[in-house]
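Question thread 4412

I'm putting together a teaching handout and wanted feedback from people who do this every day. The idea is simple: show students a protein as raw sequence, then show them the structure tokens that encode its fold, then repeat with a second protein so they can compare. Below is the first pair exactly as I plan to print it.
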Amino acid sequence: MNKFLLTTVLLILSSALIYGQKTIVGKILSKTTQEPIPYANIGIVNSNVGTISNYDGSFSIDIPKNLINDTLTFTSLGFFGKAISLDLLESKKNFTVFLKEKVTILKPVIITARLRKDKLIEIGNRIYDGGNYEPDTTYAGRSVALLIDNKNFPKGLSFPVYIKKASLYIFNNNFDSFKFRVRLNKYDSRTGKPGEDLLDKSIIVESAMKFGWLKFDLSQFNFQVKGPFFVTFEQLLDLSDRTAIAYGYRDIKRSHPELFINETVVLDGKKAIIQKLIKGGMALPGTFIGNSYSQSIFKKYSCFVRETSLGEWKKVPTIIAATVSISKQSSNNTEEKLTLPQSEIQ
């Protein structure tokens, strides 16, 4: 048997089968332009109930019975969020959510003569020995985050730094094309988990690659970070993609159960069981993210996952193959965009 393994994160949610659930359907639009807001995050904060809007701004989300008295939150990068009590929303009755755009001001960058050539330094994990795969399709908005801190900086480098690029390794892709959004999240010193978004821009890359490094150019934003942060990657799956993954996973699980094995790993001194899929499972529809289980990599990096939009972040026993390219210099020909400080949820 081929020992080369592909990880599957198994969170098979059954909310769609729960008696007494509530289905909320609608559309998210910009209050200013009336245009649809694609890939907005929708969910109940810190729960496993969450999704993303489709390209036309439409969405549908099932609320299990135990959460029907909670609050549904709508957020999108570049917009103020909105929280609505589920008591006010009728099941299966279309409604429209309007989000207000955040105001930005342009801050000029002062350029001095004879700037030295911008030197990029790559920080992060480039090692992978398998691929991470998510078969759950009840909800959407799954994200993985890698902590970037100065303990892995080369000698002489320190914060603050400018973020120029981000990269994510695609171990295997069986879709015609796929989309990922990159985010930069604040390091929450109280919890050690990803916090609020630092860069209020929706940066999405679509690719047809079968494997390789997926790159995100962030140089245009001239964005400076002053301390530890997370580089976060969110896969954007529409309903047809999620359906294909669900049926593909179900079929291989039924027809070839021998392809799945359980393995015990240690995370922060505690044992955790993960399920792995041998190489024959690479035919599954979907996109596998490169990741590592090496103990030496665990000592250097920390990785967190939230399974749905606005879900709770949890530390996981794997490290994704992802990097950021940083510099001590600002971009020469870029204007800084500064978001005016205002309340996040209105």
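The second pair follows. I'd like the answer to focus on this one:
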Amino acid sequence: MNKIWTVAVLVIYLGSSVTPLENGLARTPPMGWLAWERFRCNTDCKNDPENCISENLFKTMADIVVNEGYADAGYEYINVDDCWLEKERNSYGQLVADRTRFPTGMKSLSEYIHSKGLKFGIYEDYGNYTCAGYPGVLGFLQRDADTFASWDVDYVKLDGCYAHPIDMDVGYPEFGFHLNRTGRPMIYSCSWPVYQIYAGMQPNFTSIIEHCNVWRNFDDIQDSWASVESIIDYYGNNQDVIVPNAGPGHWNDPDMLIIGNFGLSYEQSKTQMALWAILAAPLLMSVDLRNIRPEYKAILQNKKIIAVDQDPLGIQGRRIYKHKGIEIWSRPITPLFQNYFSYAIAFINRRTDGTPSDVAVTLKELGLTSPTGYRVEKIKLVTERLWKSHVEALGLRARFYQTIDPGDKTWKHNLTLLICSQTED
């Protein structure tokens, strides 16, 4: 049986900037929609025309992002992943989109997405081939960067299949150089560190930060709670190495949001959204937006959680407590008052014994240090659209009590949000 976590989020409003990349992009974690986890490499448009990787799929998702409130919530990228290419380059050595599934071409698709006020992302691979066996960029770095710029691409994800991890220390920066020299602003998402970690190497994060806007450190997410759980564990167990690398312009990427698919319950979905916000993660949905249930849509569009994720300080959160199945995660956020941070704090119940767990801590024990105390607003999700709030002032030594219910597939428990501001008296 998969473990079911439950989550309460505490946001304490009271953060420091890091030098951006030369491209000046991704000052907050990117938000958008990405095809891969939900639609994979489905190229069978004859038998499955509604779900195959095609220009129709991406246009449809772009329409929904705009028309159903996702763009208003901050989601702006529509990102193509693997399997968009012909199996061979053209006679000039250029990449070509599959002529059957993308009959009008990538430039036309880019124009359509831009006409909606959104941005266009694309996928490639540093090796000879992509992970699905389509042409990679190796040997064509400048040509492919120029091609992407000519298509008005806004976001490039570069995978690492069919490439030697040792070569990535040179290859990824080189492709980034060619992207930048086009003059076209393109977020650069790298798989560089994860392939080196799998090879037993120690990634050079100083170089990765310099050359990439976003990078992966761990496994591809799968549509299961076990997968989400393993990612959260990895980030908690390796946070001393991972956390210092994040900041405005350069982010750790725990991979896509799978909320609204088949593998997560409602409670688990809230946990993923909350923890991704604490981790200052890119929020890239990979879900069929045509038939997502309203309660999952509400999670993805939750403005309070998105505000935590998009906090301009760009400080990634940490796990600050772990004992007997209870975890507490904390992230410094804005606003500041008299040089004291605000905080977003998530309480997570990993226990599987089926009973609520009570947590009693002082604000000081949570790492809060403002001598004037904090204004705590407790916001609890009652129905999919109704939130109730309770406000109180707490000093550092005041004991905060939180009951973390066991997760289930209803939505009358959990995601309690506490928004706390430093008090001035």
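Top answer:
Good format. For the second protein you could add a caption like this: The longest strand covers residues 326-337. Residues 8 and 416 are 4 Å apart (CA to CA).
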